[in-house]
Amino acid sequence: MRREDEALARAAAGALLAEAELTPKPGLPDTREADFGALRWSAGSLVPGLAAMAAAARRAPEGPSRRLRAELGSIGRSTERSMARANAGTALHHGALWPLGLLVAAAALEPAEPPGELPAVARRIVTFTDGAAPRRPTPGSAAASRYGAAGARGEARAGFPHVRRAVAALRSARDAGAREPAARLDALLTVMSTLQDTGLLHTAGPHGLRLVQNGARDVLDAGGSATAAGRSALDAFDIRLRAAGLRPRGSAHLLAATLFVDGLWWRGGTPNARATIRAGRREAPVPA
């Protein structure tokens, strides 16, 4: 396995941890309640599988193809099982592997592409079907079918529009002078405000989804998390979601994907195996 493949995998795992460390996240686990030892162990368990996805894409001379799609699917399912075993049967990052795995594969497949183009490369990969994928519906796919939502697969087939919007929101907040945690929170809220989260639809139906979307818009309309009014709205939103038991995990997964893409862009698209993404600041790569 090439060093570049492991570097991409570790950058993706670092993005997962950066998302987890971000606080306060409305309705989502963060430093106020999460077991970060378990989260680090879980993120680390994904690194071999993510590196294998990168290696599979890098050795695909024909580019996106049915064969590559099937190989990525097989690696992904094996990695999900390994993650569950590493966490005593609990897949702490269940669902995050789909966007991150596709984007890692996209970065390995087209190393010369600017990071901002990776969602489009991922879209080309998922135009092919994975014939070995389980045919039984998942709660998310059942909710997508019932309510006509795009779901995780629809998000990928559209070229991850929420990742693109979140990257733009992240940069806009930075340009406006927001500190890094506030910029990342605004990126998360941007995703929450429009994402048709099938996990929420499954557990809380359209009413729960609207509560999340409207609450996120309220915070952004109040000026975002960097302003006093926006922070007050964010705190109230967080309280409402926790009281209602609403967990917008789909938005958290897409924030991790956003931080992965943003991290590659900031480092010029060439991650270093020891470079990390940290909540609250961006760190330069450590020379090898």
- In spatial order, strands of the major sheet run 1-2
Strand content: under 5%
Number of strands: 2
- Can you write the helix and strand succession as a string? HHHHHHHHHHHHEE
Tally of helical segments = 12
Give the helix level as a range of percent.
55-70%
Structural class: mainly alpha
First-last Cα distance:
17 Å
Shape designation = globular
**What is the overall pLDDT average?**
88
Main β-sheet description? 2 strands, antiparallel
Compute the CA-based radius of gyration: 18 Å
Write a brief structural summary.
Helices cover 66% and strands 1% of the residues. The chain has 12 helices and 2 strands.
Give a structural overview.
It is a single chain. By secondary structure, this protein is mostly helical. The chain contains twelve helices and two strands. The chain has a two-stranded antiparallel sheet with strand order 1-2. Helix 9 crosses helix 10. The longest helix is centred in the last third of the chain and has 24 residues, at 198-221. The protein is globular and about 50 Å long.
Features of the shown structure:
mainly alpha; 2 strands; 288 residues; two-stranded antiparallel sheet
